[in-house]
Design a protein that fits this description.
alpha+beta, Translation Initiation Factor IF3
Length: 117
C-alpha cells in the first residue's frame, strides 16, 4: 500500500474495488463525524459577503475542515475494526439548527491484499 495514498494508514476510495487489490475480509461499517457551529465572527463576515454576493469563504473553510476531520475519524474507526481500507466511501451532511451542521463520513471497512501479477 506504499504506492497508494492513505489516511491514517487506511486506503480510502469511493469505488467498490481498489485496482490491484482484492478484498479478503469485510469488517463492517466505518464511520466518523463532526458537528460544527458558526460563531459571531464568521456570521458577521458571512453577512457582509452575502450583501456583496459571492462565496462565503469563512463557511467554505469551516466545512472543508469538518470534512477532513470526519474523514480522519472514519479512517481511525476502520483501523479499530481491523481494516486496512475503506471502500464505497461517502459523505453525508445534516443541518442541526440554524448555526450547526453535522458532517458524517462512512464506508465499508475491509481488509485488502495486493493481487500478484
Amino acid at each position: 500500500m506504499k504506492d497508494m495514498k492513505t489516511i491514517e494508514g487506511i486506503i480510502v476510495v469511493t469505488t467498490p474495488e481498489i485496482p490491484g487489490y482484492k478484498v479478503v475480509e469485510v469488517k463492517g461499517v466505518a464511520r466518523g463525524g463532526t458537528v460544527r457551529a458558526t460563531h459571531i465572527g464568521r456570521d458577521i463576515m458571512a453577512l457582509l459577503r452575502n450583501l456583496k454576493g459571492g462565496e462565503v469563504k469563512e463557511y467554505t473553510e469551516m466545512m472543508a475542515e469538518a470534512r477532513e476531520e470526519a474523514l480522519r475519524r472514519m479512517a481511525l474507526h476502520a483501523k479499530e475494526l481491523g481494516a486496512n481500507a475503506v471502500v464505497n466511501f461517502r459523505f453525508a451532511t445534516s443541518n442541526l439548527g440554524g448555526s450547526m451542521a453535522e458532517i458524517y463520513a462512512y464506508g465499508t471497512a475491509v481488509v485488502v491484499e495486493r493481487v500478484e501479477k
